Amino acid sequence: MSQQQISLPAKLINGGIAGIVGVTCVFPIDLAKTRLQNQRPGQHVYKSMMDCLVKTVRSEGYFGMYRGAAVNLTLVTPEKAIKLAANDFFRHHLSKDGKGLTVFKEMLAGCGAGMCQVIITTPMEMLKIQLQDAGRLAAQQQKPGMMAPTKLVATNTMLSRSYNSGTVVSAPRAVSATQIAKELLHTQGIQGLYRGLGATLMR
C-alpha cells in the first residue's frame, strides 16, 4: 500500500500504537541510562546497566523499572500526531506536481517535523528524567557515608528543585509528573519545562 493511500487518522493511530509499544520495550534501558548518567563522582550507586536494573527491581519492584513511563505513554500519541502531521504538511509543500521528493527535500521535511515535535518532546523528557532519577536519589541516601549533612534539605522539597539545583534531597517522597510540572511552572515559569530545548532541537 502506497503512503498516499493511508489517511492521516490511520497514520496517527499507527504512530501512537508504535510509540506505546516502543516505550514499553525500551523504557527500562532508558531508565538505567538516566540513572547511570546522573551519578556524581564519589556517589556511585550502580556499576553497570544490569546492576542498575537488578537493584531497581530489588528496591522498587518490577514496575520500578517503569518509573516515569506514564509521562511518555500519555504524551507519545500527541507527539507522534504532531510529527506525522507536520511531516505530511512539509512534504506536500515541498513536492512539485505530485512528483516524488528528492533525498534532500525528504530530509528537510523530516527536519521540519522534528522541530515541531519538540513542543511535546522537551517537557516530556524533562518530567520523565526527573521521575526516573527519583529512585537513584533514594538508593543513594540509603548508602552510609554517601552524603554530607550540609547537603541535606527539607523532606518535603520537590524532586524538581533537587534535579535542577544539583542538591540531594532527604527521604524523597513519591512525586508525580503533575507535581513536578506545577513546581517548575511556579518557580521558573514555562522556561522550566523547556530547559534543554536547544539540545533537543539539535538532536
UniProtKB/TrEMBL annotation:
Coiled coil spans: none
GO biological process, one term: malate-aspartate shuttle
Xref: InterPro entries: MCP, MCP_dom_sf, MCP_transmembrane, Mito_Solute_Carrier
Membrane-related topology note: Multi-pass membrane protein
Keywords: Membrane, Mitochondrion, Mitochondrion inner membrane, Repeat, Transmembrane, Transmembrane helix, Transport
Solcar repeat start and end residues: 6-93, 101-203
Name of this chain's protein: Mitochondrial glutamate carrier 1
Lineage: Eukaryota, Metazoa, Chordata, Craniata, Vertebrata
